[in-house]
């Protein structure tokens, strides 16, 4: 089984494309090469694949990256399933993971939520989607400053609060307050629960 994330940028027409697209490409390149593992297409849509263990952390890395830019957000559809055909371009590959993710993005555009998951199990989908709806209440309201801190924590889990304070030229207590406001410890627990539920498929 693999995980496929299909997403699109919300409010992309009101932002400097060169800025967000460069940062998104740089992020995705950490996880594989384009167009085999990821691709940005139709201006503001993208798709990439990863292991099922990593998918929640990957989703949050993208979410925090995009939220760290004024007025931008991202819709993300997570599909878990098989890859029956692997092309040189991810957008031409196929299997249940791709189908689940692509169809789900269309559903998200109509229901107003920013993240959802589709697997082979209705009960797993129900549990994880309730979790995602609650947690995205937080994620969708991150300030730019909070999103920046979260993104650094996700991308470098060995980083200390002192390192973050130096990077952002703020006090260590300000870093601590931002992490508390973002419920970072709860995010880590949520990632562990997410991985456990998906491993049961």
From TrEMBL:
It holds the Pfam family SatD. It comes from the Bacteria. SUPFAM superfamilies: lambda repressor-like DNA-binding domains. This is SatD family protein. It comes from Chryseobacterium pyrolae. The lineage of its organism: Bacteria, Pseudomonadati, Bacteroidota, Flavobacteriia, Flavobacteriales.
């Amino acid at each position: 089984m693999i995980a496929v994330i299909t997403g699109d940028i919300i409010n992309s027409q009101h932002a400097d494309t060169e800025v967000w697209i460069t940062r998104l490409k740089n992020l995705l390149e950490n996880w594989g090469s384009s167009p085999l593992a990821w691709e940005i297409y139709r201006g503001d849509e993208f798709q990439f694949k990863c292991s099922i263990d990593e998918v929640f952390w990957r989703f949050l890395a993208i979410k925090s990256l995009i939220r760290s830019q004024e007025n931008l957000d991202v819709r993300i559809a997570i599909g878990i399933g098989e890859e029956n055909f692997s092309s040189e371009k991810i957008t031409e590959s196929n299997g249940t993971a791709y189908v689940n993710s692509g169809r789900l993005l269309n559903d998200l555009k109509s229901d107003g939520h920013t993240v959802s998951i589709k697997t082979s199990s209705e009960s797993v989908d129900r549990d994880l989607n309730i979790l995602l709806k609650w947690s995205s209440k937080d994620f969708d309201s991150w300030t730019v400053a909070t999103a920046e801190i979260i993104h650094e924590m996700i991308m470098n889990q060995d980083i200390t609060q002192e390192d973050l304070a130096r990077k952002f030229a703020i006090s260590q207590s300000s870093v601590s307050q931002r992490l508390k406001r973002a419920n970072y410890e709860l995010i880590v627990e949520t990632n562990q629960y997410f991985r456990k539920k998906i491993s049961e498929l």
